[in-house]
Amino acid sequence: MTAVATNEVAAARERLEGLRHEVSRIYLGSSRALDAMLVALLAKGHVLLEGVPGIAKTTLVKAFATALGCTARRIQFTPDLLPADITGTYVLSPREGTFTLRAGPVFANVVLADEINRAPAKTQSALLEAMQERQVTIEGDRFELPLPFLVLATQNPIDLEGTYPLPEAQIDRFLVRVAMGYPSPRDEAQMLRTHGIDPPVVRAVLNPTDLASLQAIAARIHVEDDLIDYAVGICTFTRTHPRVALGCSPRATLGLMQAAKAFALMNGRPFVAPDDVRAVASSVLAHRLVLTADAEPETKAREHVIEEALSKVGYRRGVRAI
User: Fold this and answer.
1) CATH superfamily membership of 221-314
2) Can you give the pLDDT at residue 321?
């Protein structure tokens, strides 16, 4: 794998800043959620946004999808939604007497899964194969999904009425999870000032080719072996923590390094630094932990485990021969 040139990194960062600026014209709020979505985009991962109703989760993902310039489809998850409503199914054509595929909304570059935890586990699991392997199987036939492929899912807190917890296997498919809170008083005041005025129209600032190029650059960001050991050490720490029943999987370790590469690119560096790993650790790892019964009720207990891992697992730069 060839090293990333400095001019490639600079050009990529400029494109990403253009994307950030375009989405920020529509979405008023903290940049934390948008940063996490950019990380997932570059790392070919999926995003889970969690927050109470009415804090512009859907507004954010719609603006983001439109600015990417890719095909986008939205799925409103409800308790009566069926797996075939997501993947598609074969339908009979009475005139020809043959079955033809009616493709579902998953056949798009960007899938907006709105309120994903309002559907039961059977329907939620319809996305598992698509999210991991970028393909779906319908009646035994395998179909490739268009690339790039990105799932932007929103969910309400699981203690709200009519919600179902996501299965652990599906949560592990999301590269990052972002807990969205209420906007700051300043942002909320600005929202009130602009409410009722025709909102600006989101422009497409990228296209699928641009996106594939940015993802290829992110994949070539350099990582030293000692940083790989550091990432492994953080994830290993969660597997032996006394308050964790199920620690981070190897998929989480892979995701942590991919996200760190993306974060380095966003900050204009052709290499990963320890701070890049620390910056993305909580959003990549915390939602994958299954806590013990006594730790589960605590607020932000998962984030506290990751914070403890970052404080106790030291980074030691290896000695290299000259």
Assistant:
1) Magnesium chelatase subunit I, C-Terminal domain (1.10.8.80)
2) 41
